[in-house]
Amino acid sequence: MKRLFILLATAVASFANIVLSAEWHGTKSVWHGADRYDFTIADRSAIMIVPDNPLPGNPWIWRPAFFDAFPSVDIAMLEQGYHIAYYNVTDEWARPSSLRAGKEFFDYAVEHGLMDKVVMEGLSRGGYYSLRFAQTYPKHIGALLLDNPLVDINELRRNVDWWNDVTAKWSQDSLPPPGLAENAACNISILVDNKIPVLLLSGGADTIVPYERNGKIIKDTYRRWDMPLKSVIRPHSGHHPHGIDNPYPVAEFIYNCLYGQHNLRPIRVACIGDSMTEGVGTD
């Protein structure tokens, strides 16, 4: 009887994977050797890349902005068995309607068999949306992968055109520009309370989204509470390029986040030295 149960369970799991591959609709093409599907949800463009051999539970990475820009991490994750998703909320500055639309996309992906905890991959302003989505729906987040992320929305006030765009987008929801309650920088405690792991890639010479006023807010808060965070600072890099030369440690970090192998209280080593102590690619 036990052997029969195992055989049935294996058959059901295999059938689920077959159905998963067959259920995606839209325009089909190929992205780095894998099936790509383009479709729309709530009048926003969406993309789903399906790996040849998905990991157990069908984990997935969601980019809310800049699909296919600096894709080394996505390509590595695809090879490891992750679905790669895109849902375009690039220029909406996390206004409430865009967060609701993101939840609709999330629900659609889960209904099609993907894991009910997503890894948000946010580059620049996509990092801000990723943070706000995670702060709004923390139970649905497996990890945050943030690359030179905008964290404090008030950074955009430095540029009149940027802030006018924020005001215009929020006015479409009949709302004033975001205040403290809607600022990702003021709500990092929600991520801490929900123990959401963060992998933070930062350019130390970034003048567009300065690390000291953005990514460092996350790093300092997470370090204060011994929360799971891996920080890689590229001291001489600006806002571009995004990504990392060797993406496979990123894949290992994300795997440990999703499959329960993270040590939430990391061992600390004190390094004493000059201005070069932080180094390149260290955390």
Structure description:
- With 283 residues, the protein is an alpha/beta fold.
- It has eight helices and nine strands.
- It has helices at 2-23, 72-80, 96-111, 125-136, 160-171, 188-193, 215-224, 248-258, and strands spanning 27-31, 34-41, 44-50, 60-63, 83-87, 118-123, 141-147, 198-203, 229-234.
- It has a nine-stranded mixed β-sheet, sandwiched between helices.
Summarize the structure.
This protein has helices at 2-23, 72-80, 96-111, 125-136, 160-171, 188-193, 215-224, 248-258; strands at residues 27-31, 34-41, 44-50, 60-63, 83-87, 118-123, 141-147, 198-203, 229-234.
Count of DSSP helices? 8
Report the portion of residues in β strands: 15-25%
The low-confidence runs, each spanning 5 or more residues with pLDDT under 50, are: 1-22
In N-to-C order, the SSE pattern is HEEEEHEHEHEHHEHEH
Outline the secondary-structure elements.
Blueprint: H1 2-23, E1 27-31, E2 34-41, E3 44-50, E4 60-63, H2 72-80, E5 83-87, H3 96-111, E6 118-123, H4 125-136, E7 141-147, H5 160-171, H6 188-193, E8 198-203, H7 215-224, E9 229-234, H8 248-258
Parallel strand pairs: 4-5, 4-6, 6-7, 7-8, 8-9
Antiparallel strand pairs: 1-2, 2-3, 3-5
